Amino acid sequence: MKKILIMLIILPAFFGRAWAKEIDGQALEIFESGKMEQGLNEKELAIIGSTGPEQFDAFPALSRLWNAFLAEIQNRLRENLGFAAELFGLILFSALAGAVCGDEKIRAAVEILTFCFAAFLLAGNVDSLVSQTLETIYRLSDYSRTALPVTFTAAAAGGAVSSSAVRYAAACLAMDVMMSLSQKAVIPLVYDAMALGLANILFPNPVLSAMEALSKWAAKTIMTGAALAFTAYLSLSSIVSTSVDAAAIKAMRSVVSGVLPVVGGMLSDASAAVLSAASVIRSCTGAVGLIAVSVVCAGPLALLCVKRFLFKAVAAAAEAVQNPRLQKLFSCVGSAAGMLMGLLGCNAMMLFLSFTAAMKAVSA
Asked: How far apart are CA 312 and CA 303, in angstroms?
């Protein structure tokens, strides 16, 4: 009689609904994966596509990203054709004036005037580049505050409790430090290098040249040092924490299976299914985060690439007509655009490493 009662109690469990297929859907709601789309506009979301674990496909998204980047470069080239024509016309005017004027003093005066006019045209251009670069860095910082918790929470649910906490803390600290360095150190050094370069062009002096080189070196060293320090800290701190997580998962499953015979094995398998669902969400959100960072940076990087190419082209034209002042001016501005590209790339690389670290967290 007791056996019959036990069977009547247990049998309904075998005819219940299977929830294994709905684990991913429930996990999406639990981890609030919809936050991966916050801070992105409609155009950027169209490039990324669906962010669900079953619908998301990275390869078409990367193809759309590449096409959008090429289209952005073409648009920026068309927008800057008029500005490029002004600079080339200024170089041509300087060359013709120098050829017509026989007096050396008049020729030098015309060269200085064209230099000052070109510097006036470029001043607003550089300010616009700096503003757009800082705006993109702000967007990356804001996006990291909403997207990284989703990925690292999924990684923690997948078994990487210690390593996720360590890596998330490192990512947040790195972004805050890089934001402060960008505002208070790198951008001022970029302006400082440009000012010293312009002063050295007008009034050649080895001290000014050395100070300009020092400013460029300091800006590049700060960016490189911050990136290397973040990479080293993330790697070293993850070695120990990942080993701890792997040992903890193995011990937990062994204890559950050993203490509760038969039922313990079922619970262990069920926990593995839950951890597997968390790993799927972790991988999906990590891939979405990587592509989202690339999408956010694509437009500003395209603009910086076009501007840098333009400045190098007009510098080559100025060198061809033997106008050293204009050649040095355009080269100086081109170097500033290159440093802005490095600053934006440094911030993007830190987010890349953060998402990659979450995706490569230990799993069951």
From this structure: 14
Let me know: does 302 contact 77? Beta carbons within 8 Å.
Answer: no
Q: What's the pTM?
A: 0.78
**Token digits for 262?**
């038969």
pLDDT in tens, 257-310: 444 444 444 434 444 444 454 455 666 777 788 888 888 999 899 999 999 999
Contacts of 281 (CB under 8 A, 6+ apart): 24, 27, 28, 31, 33, 53, 154
Sketch the domain layout of the chain as residue ranges: 123-359
